[in-house]
Structure formats: structure tokens, C-alpha cells
Specification:
The structure is a single chain. With 476 residues, the chain is α/β, with parallel strands linked by helices. It folds into two domains: 21-113 and 267-474, 3-Layer(aba) Sandwich (Aminopeptidase); 115-250, Aminopeptidase i, Domain 2, CATH 2.30.250.10. Helix content is 29%, strand content 23%. The chain is built from 13 helices and 22 strands. The protein has helices at residues 2-7, 21-24, 27-45, 50-63, 188-191, 195-198, 221-234, 269-283, 313-327, 335-343, 395-407, 429-433, 458-474, and strands at residues 67-68, 80-85, 89-94, 104-110, 115-126, 129-137, 150-157, 163-168, 206-209, 245-250, 255-257, 263-266, 291-297, 346-349, 353-354, 376-379, 383-384, 412-414, 424-425, 438-443, 445-446, 454-457. A nine-stranded mixed β-sheet has the order 1-2-3-13-4-14-20-16-18, sandwiched between helices. A six-stranded antiparallel β-sheet has the order 8-7-10-5-6-9. A three-stranded antiparallel β-sheet has the order 11-12-22. Strand 5 (115-126) and strand 6 form a beta hairpin. Helix 3 packs across helix 13 (458-474) and helix 8 crosses helix 13. It starts with a helix and ends with a helix.
């Protein structure tokens, strides 16, 4: 019997397994993941808007020797350059040993998040209270934005051409801002309606003041008092709001979740939990084989439009400039060489995905859904329902990625964003694929995506960084 057992062959392990990384990872890896998460939380707390993320990315790059690409006439292996895109997008690159004509390795993310923007003429007074009228940005559940502390972030551009930065509500000594909701005692009609009707877009009005000026002849004394505060501190007049870019975001800091601190709750994980590892992976490069690029875009939440969104040619201009200056100068640029380089380029579209939530299991197909703490998620295609708006990666490229992950002992999972007929979503991948490059979506799962406060797993965040780093260092 013993001899028989020795001769029995074990079944080949070919079934897919997606283990929980908190079970599988070493204590050292978990400790390192928690340390990485602390750095991420600190960066996130000062980078809630796309402008802030870009400012802090520039600072991080400069500390490591990166320079503005406009200051370089030619580029050689090991050179480090960056470019801002209208102050709301960002690109940085480390020039590789191989010529740029051989293609690039790109990590692309977006740094805008769902929020409330001010209307062009936002301020009004109603029954002795002053409000800002807002226009929500991106896909949100409007009722989630009531009864939470809010902060103002952004810039005013005054008529004299000066830029005035504003950030109110983040420091413990700051005031916060607030959107009211109806008390339950009077809300039977409200609660009987559809969730989309609980709070209308026109009702997302933010309280900003309630003390009047002492002028009996002033028609709007409460509004006037707030205007005077803004004018004395920032030099702002009411007409300057049309040229402002003020965003209203949750005032909370990033916080650990759970007794074991396994998760992070914060505003803006979508998509900053991918943008930050993408930036860090690029900053870890010194003289890679192929030129590596991190691309952080704006406006993804509303279709990647405008001259700071992923559809803008400015991002492509940066790649053209890398190629031309690597060839010897701008005058050396050749469009056919560039197009061939794009064909040889490999990119990860680094965006988040939905995490399976047992409370809402009917929205997911469990065999094709990402789970928290099981590592990075590969999405071969995005889109909605019949793959509408999808960029579908070629199978051979997916195979290259999974081999790199396996070679570097990086766990991954795969699937879609919810059941087919329920919905779906898109990323910047479709716009990048138009250039001919290979693109695959890879991110981590998020609970409560697009809510004011979202949740991710620390171990997923760290393994995402490892995956991005392995990709730009090894893909050909």
C-alpha cells in the first residue's frame, strides 16, 4: 500500500486560485505594505484635487533630480524630465538605454475625483443664510454629500491676473462647510421617493455664512459680509468666481479601518490609489532599459475631455518631444518613426475597479469580480453592457503581463465591473489605444467607489506598486 501511494501522481495544479494576501504574505511584506500605506495617506491628505496632486508630484520629482523637459535640448539614458499639463495633468519620464524609437513603457492614471464644483455665479443669500450653488462633477450619489464636513480647495484668478490658492476646512482651526438634509420627522415624502430624487442636483447648496454686515441699506447684508471676507483675504470680487476653479471635497483625513488596520478609508482613492504607486514606481527608476513614463491625467470622471484630459494632444506631444530630443533635437522629429514607436509602446491604464461587497452580492458575478486583499486586478476589457466604450487588450499582451507578475511573485485576480446588464465603466485606455500601443487596465478593488469616503486594502495598494514597478522594468 505504501509503495502504491508513492507511485500515485499528484494532480497538476492548473485550477485558478486567488488567495487573500493577508493569509499568504510574509510578516515582512505586510509590515512594508503598512509603511507604504502611511506614505500614501500623507500624500493623499495634501493632494485631494488634481491641481494639488500635480504640485506635489512636481515637488517629489524635483527632489530626485527631475527637470522640466523644456530646459533640455537633447535627452540621453538616465535623464529625468517632467511636464505639467495646464496645472492639472502631469507627465514624468526616465530615459532608457534603448532609443525611444523602440517604444515606451507607460503607466497612466487619472488624478481627478468625483466632487462638487461651484457654479459660475455661485453665491446667494436665502433667509439670513449664505450659500454656494454647486454643480456635481462625475458620477455620484447626491444624497451621500449631505451632512458631512466639507472643505474648499482651488484657485481664484482675479481681474488683475493674479492667482490666489485657497484651502479651507482641512486645518483643525479652519471652519468647514455643510449641506443640510431634512430631519426624519418630516421626511416621509422624501423617503418614499427614488434614491435619485432624495436630493436633487440643485439642492446641493453649501452653507458658507450667517452673520450680516451692519449696514441697514444693504439689500443682501449676509452675502455682502462673506464677499467682504473673501475680498479682504484674497482680493476676490463676485465676478471673479467665473474664472475660479474651486472644488468642494470631504474635509476628512485618510484613516485606517478596522481593529487590525487592514484598510484605508479616504476621499479620492479613485484614482489616486493607482496614481500614487504609478508615480512612485517611476521615481524608483535610474537608467531603465526602455524609457519609462508616468502619465497622470485630468477629467477622466467626465470623459477625459478638455486640454487637460487624456484625449488632449498635450500628452502625446510629450512623447513626441521625448522621441525627438532622444534622437538629437526637436528638428530630428519624424512622424513615421513616432508612429512606429507607438506601435511598440506598452501601457498599463492604472485605474480602480469595484470590490465584491457581500451586502450587494446581486450586483456582482462572483467568478468575475475582484475581492479585497487578493492583489491587483487585471481587466482585459472595460466598457458597459455589450462592451460599449471598451478598449480590449490583446491576449498576447495579457500573457506578457501575467508572466511578469508570476516571475515577480505578484498575486493577481481578474474579472469585470459588475454584472453585464447592470452597468460598467470606462478608463483612459481607449484613448491611448488609438495611437496603436498595447494597453491593459490594472488597478485594485475599492468599496463604496465614488462615495465621499472610499475604502481600499493596504496590502492591495502595496502589491499594486510592486506590479507597476515590475511592469515598467520588464515589459518589452
Amino acid at each position: 500500500m505504501a509503495d502504491k501511494k508513492k507511485t500515485e501522481k499528484k494532480a497538476k495544479k492548473i485550477a485558478a486560485e486567488y488567495p487573500n494576501l493577508y493569509k499568504e504574505a510574509s510578516k515582512t511584506d505586510i509590515k512594508t505594505a503598512f509603511e507604504f500605506a502611511e506614505d500614501y495617506k500623507a500624500f493623499l491628505d495634501i493632494s485631494k484635487t488634481e491641481r494639488e496632486f500635480v504640485i506635489n508630484s512636481v515637488e517629489a520629482c524635483k527632489e530626485l533630480g527631475f527637470v522640466d523637459i523644456d530646459t533640455k535640448k537633447t535627452l540621453k539614458a538616465g535623464d529625468k524630465v517632467y511636464k505639467t499639463v495646464k496645472g492639472k495633468g502631469f507627465l514624468c519620464a526616465v530615459i532608457g538605454i534603448e532609443p525611444c524609437s523602440n517604444g515606451f513603457n507607460i503607466l497612466g492614471a487619472h488624478v481627478d475625483s468625483p466632487r462638487l464644483d461651484l457654479k459660475p455665479n455661485p453665491m446667494y443669500e436665502d433667509h439670513e443664510t449664505v450659500y454656494f450653488k454647486t454643480h456635481y462633477y462625475g458620477g455620484i450619489k447626491k444624497y451621500q454629500w449631505t451632512t458631512i464636513p466639507l472643505a474648499l480647495h482651488g484657485v481664484f484668478f482675479t481681474k488683475d491676473g493674479k492667482e490666489h490658492q485657497i484651502c479651507i476646512g482641512e486645518d483643525p482651526s479652519d471652519p468647514v462647510f455643510y449641506i443640510t438634509d431634512l430631519l426624519p420627522h418630516l421626511a416621509s415624502e422624501q423617503m418614499g421617493g427614488k434614491a435619485t430624487d432624495i436630493i436633487k442636483g440643485e439642492d446641493l447648496n453649501v452653507i458658507i455664512g450667517g452673520i450680516p454686515v451692519k449696514d441697514k441699506d444693504e439689500k443682501h447684508p449676509y452675502k455682502q459680509a462673506i464677499l467682504e471676507i473673501l475680498n479682504s483675504k484674497y482680493g476676490v470680487e463676485e465676478k471673479d468666481f467665473v474664472s475660479s476653479e474651486i472644488e468642494i471635497v470631504p474635509a476628512d483625513k485618510a484613516r485606517d479601518v478596522g481593529f487590525d488596520r487592514a484598510y484605508i478609508a479616504a476621499y479620492g482613492h479613485d484614482d489616486k490609489c493607482c496614481a500614487y504607486p504609478a508615480l512612485m514606481a517611476l521615481l524608483a527608476q535610474e537608467k531603465p532599459k526602455r524609457t519609462c513614463v508616468t502619465m497622470l491625467t485630468d477629467k477622466e470622471e467626465i470623459g477625459s475631455y478638455s486640454n487637460s484630459g487624456a484625449q488632449s494632444v498635450i500628452y502625446e506631444n510629450f512623447l513626441m518631444e521625448l522621441l525627438a530630443k532622444n534622437l538629437g533635437g526637436i528638428e530630428k522629429f519624424n512622424m513615421l518613426v513616432y508612429r512606429k514607436a507607438m506601435e511598440a509602446t506598452k501601457m498599463l491604464s492604472t485605474d480602480v475597479t469595484s470590490a465584491y461587497d457581500p451586502k450587494f452580492s446581486s450586483a456582482f458575478e462572483a467568478n468575475n469580480t475582484a475581492f479585497m486583499s487578493r492583489g491587483v486586478k487585471i481587466e482585459k476589457y472595460t466598457g458597459a453592457r455589450g462592451k460599449s466604450g471598451s478598449s480590449e487588450a490583446n491576449g498576447d499582451f495579457v500573457s506578457q503581463i501575467t508572466k511578469i507578475l508570476a516571475d515577480n511573485s505578484i498575486s493577481w485576480q481578474t474579472g469585470e465591473l459588475g454584472k453585464i446588464d447592470i452597468g460598467g465603466g470606462g478608463t483612459i485606455s481607449a484613448y491611448m489605444a488609438k495611437t496603436g500601443m498595447d494597453v491593459l487596465d490594472m488597478g485594485i478593488p475599492v468599496w463604496s467607489m465614488h462615495a465621499p469616503i472610499e475604502v481600499i486594502s493596504k496590502i492591495d495598494l502595496y502589491y499594486l506598486y510592486l506590479a507597476y514597478k515590475a511592469f515598467i522594468e520588464n515589459i518589452r
